[in-house]
Structure formats: structure tokens, C-alpha cells
Specification:
Layout (H helix, E strand, L loop, with lengths): L1 H9 L3 E3 L12 E3 L4 H10 L11 H8 L3 E2 L15 E2 L1 H14 L4 E8 L5 E7 L8 E6 L6 H16 L3 H9 L1 E5 L4 H9 L10 E2 L2 E2 L34 H12 L4 E9 L3 E4 L11 H17 L6 E4 H4 L7 H8 L5 E6 L17 H21 L6
Parallel strand pairs: 3-4, 7-8, 7-11, 11-14, 12-13
Antiparallel strand pairs: 1-2, 5-6, 6-8, 9-10, 12-14
Helix pairs in contact: 5-6, 5-12, 9-12
């Protein structure tokens, strides 16, 4: 494990697709062609067993860009569906169009700014004028996790258009705050330059970016993060060093007392997770977390048989401090917070992050099934208060 950790931090020619945290768990690693001889020598010297999954990953990544829709600046109205992925500007135009199409129901909200000056744009959905409990969803904090943002936009659309009674009920009874892309610079970079980019784009010497889900100001840089700027898990020079996390946290803080349920979308591995990431100690209301977790993972499997596992972050996947859901749990009075690691599972044929566009719709459908069940269970437990 120490050999792998050193590799992860020492070269931008080797990309780890999952974190190096536990022994006896497989790692998926992308190796640049010029690095292959050295990489194989390191594996051989240290008696590390490997399996070759793909000889030319770039061809698959290039093919995945065929699933991306680009905005036509001449189009006044845009079409938007869940058969393809979208560039940032296209999704932002769609959000703006929703505010026009649903006046008084959809309000554009800005959760903050990025290093390169982009807005962290989202929507508030409120179908009645009365004050209601709030549900907050953020997605795309890791840039390469395209299915996260696509799922967030699917849920926005369903909250506005679904005729399903269960979805209509949760749409009408709560205020929804949804941000599909909270790392916009990184997301744009995955379209223009590096499909597997994870971090922000803040320059740090000869390296770029901090891991924005290791940068929040609760138990920052305690475990599961790196002090090396070139590492994919670089925690940044300080908590909230990234304008993305700092400005978004300030927006969330402005909603203190109004958010009863906080949800974060990531990919991949099919986990449902809750605090904490820095310690195996469970939150004081862990029995309620477990009850909501059980209902939610049962619901996500009903439509397509998709199996989710999970639990507290530290034990279910790996130690990781400085994440958004732990911060929200501790800082804004939100006592139920969850992270979905969406499709695919580790045993699927895809490398992980380049989930085909044909998977967007089923992922969105089953995730909404799960969230509907989650919201209803949270209501039964009495956490929703105006």
C-alpha cells in the first residue's frame, strides 16, 4: 500500500481511479504509455499482482465525448433530455430556461464562484408560497463524475414534470435547492482537455487543483488526503482554500436552519454513505441514519435490481476527512446527510467514470425512487421542521 501511495503522489502520468486506503482492495490505475515500463518494473519488484483491463483507454474516452451535446448559441430555446451528457454552458442555459418556463416555482440561485470566475449555478424549486422544510442536493464536486450532474438535472426535471403521486408529493411539500455542477472549472476541463480530471483548477506551483471534497472546514486534512499538490486527493493549503468550497459553504450557511436533509451525488461504486469520514465513531443519531439507509437502498433496487451497499464513510469505503456532508452535518443544523456513489459498480465492464449515456436514465430513475423513499422515511422520523 505504501508503494501505491508513493506512486499516487509522485507522478501526473499515473492516474488512480480509486483511493489508496485499504489493503486487499483492488485499484484501477491509468498509466501513460511512456510510464508503462517503469510501472511494470515497480509492480514486479514489489510482487504486486495486476490485470490489464484496457490497452488504449484514450480511444474509449474519446468515444465517450460522442455522447455530449453542445449548445448552439443561435438557438433561443434548447431541448434537454437524459439520453446524452451536456457541456456546462448547455446545462446552465437549461436552468435559466426553467426559471422562465416556471415563474414563481423555479428560482435561479448562485451558490458561489469558481477560481476561473464561473458561477456555481443552481435552482430553488418551491411549488407553494408557504415556508417548507428544505432539501439540498449538490453534485459534480469531483469533475470527472459526469453521471452525478446528469442525475441532479434528471431529479430537477422530475420534480417539475412528474405525474407520479409519490414524486409530486415530495415536490410540493419541500423546498429544493439543487446544484448540478459545484466544480464548474474542473467539469469544463474534463470536456476540453482531460476526461479524468477530478480537482479544481487553482494553480499550485507546477500543479493544479485541490480535491474539493477534502477541502471543507471540518476535520480538514486529518486522514485520507494528501499534502502534495499534484495528488488527486490534495487537501489544499488550508481548509476552504478553494473559492468553490468557501463560497458554496457560505451560501449553505446562509440557509442554516432551513435545510433538513443534505444529499451529495458522486460516482462510482454504488454506495450510500453517511458520516463520518475522519473516524469510525458513529454520529449520535446513527440509528436514524441506519433506518433511512435501509429504506433507501431497498428502494433503489426495486426498479432494476441495482445493488447498493454502504454505511458510515470511514468503514464502508475508506477514511476521508474534509468532505462536504460531514461539514454540513456539523455546521448548519442538518442532522441527516447522505452521499450517493452512483453507477457503475466495481464489477462492471466500464472503467468507471465514462459511464455510457444509455445509463443516465436508469440511474436517474432508480436514484429518484431512492430519494422519494428517503424523504418519506425522514418525514416519519420527524426531522422535517419548518
Amino acid at each position: 500500500m505504501e508503494v501505491m501511495k508513493n506512486l499516487e503522489s509522485s507522478s501526473d502520468s499515473i492516474i488512480f481511479l480509486n483511493d489508496v486506503q485499504w489493503n486487499n482492495k483492488p485499484l484501477k490505475i491509468v498509466v501513460a504509455p511512456h510510464k508503462v515500463p517503469d510501472f511494470l518494473e515497480i509492480l514486479g519488484t514489489n510482487e504486486i499482482v495486476y490485470e490489464l483491463l484496457e490497452t488504449n483507454l484514450q480511444t474509449r474516452l474519446d468515444a465517450s465525448l460522442d455522447d455530449v451535446a453542445k449548445p448552439n448559441p443561435l438557438e433561443r430555446a434548447i431541448s434537454y433530455d437524459w439520453t446524452q451528457y451536456y457541456e456546462l454552458d448547455y446545462t446552465y442555459r437549461w436552468l435559466q430556461q426553467l426559471a422562465v418556463n416556471y415563474p414563481g416555482v423555479v428560482t435561479l440561485i448562485e451558490g458561489g464562484k469558481s477560481y476561473q470566475g464561473r458561477s456555481i449555478l443552481g435552482v430553488k424549486i418551491s411549488k407553494t408560497k408557504s415556508e417548507k422544510p428544505g432539501i439540498f442536493i449538490e453534485a459534480g464536486i469531483h469533475a470527472r463524475e459526469w453521471i452525478a450532474g446528469a442525475t441532479a438535472t434528471y431529479i430537477i426535471n422530475q420534480l417539475l414534470t412528474s405525474t407520479d403521486e409519490g414524486v409530486k408529493q415530495i415536490a410540493e411539500n419541500y423546498n429544493w435547492y439543487i446544484f448540478p455542477h459545484v466544480n464548474p472549472d474542473g467539469f469544463v476541463y474534463t470536456h476540453t482537455t482531460d476526461r479524468l480530471w477530478r480537482k479544481t483548477r487553482t494553480p499550485y506551483g507546477s500543479c493544479f487543483g485541490s480535491d474539493p471534497n477534502r477541502n471543507w472546514g471540518f476535520e480538514w486534512n486529518v486522514v485520507g488526503s494528501s499534502n502534495i499538490p499534484c495528488s488527486d486527493t490534495y487537501a489544499g493549503p488550508s481548509a476552504f482554500s478553494e473559492i468553490e468550497t468557501r463560497s458554496l459553504s457560505e451560501y449553505i450557511k446562509s440557509l442554516e436552519g432551513k435545510i433538513s436533509l443534505y444529499i451529495s451525488f458522486h460516482s462510482y461504486s454504488q454506495y450510500l454513505l453517511y458520516p463520518y469520514g475522519h473516524t469510525a465513531t458513529l454520529p449520535s443519531n446513527h440509528e436514524d441514519f441506519k433506518r433511512v439507509y435501509d429504506v433507501s437502498v431497498a428502494a433503489i433496487s426495486k426498479r432494476y435490481g441495482t445493488v447498493y451497499t454502504g454505511g458510515n464513510i470511514y468503514d464502508a469505503i475508506y477514511p476521508a476527512s474534509g468532505g462536504s456532508i460531514d461539514w454540513a452535518y456539523e455546521n448548519v443544523g442538518t442532522k441527516l446527510v447522505f452521499c450517493y456513489e452512483l453507477r457503475p459498480s466495481d464489477n462492471q465492464p466500464w472503467i468507471g467514470f465514462e459511464l455510457p449515456a444509455s445509463q443516465i436514465l436508469p440511474t436517474g430513475e432508480e436514484t429518484l425512487d431512492s430519494i422519494t423513499a428517503m424523504v418519506n422515511e425522514v418525514e416519519k422520523l420527524g426531522y422535517f421542521k419548518n
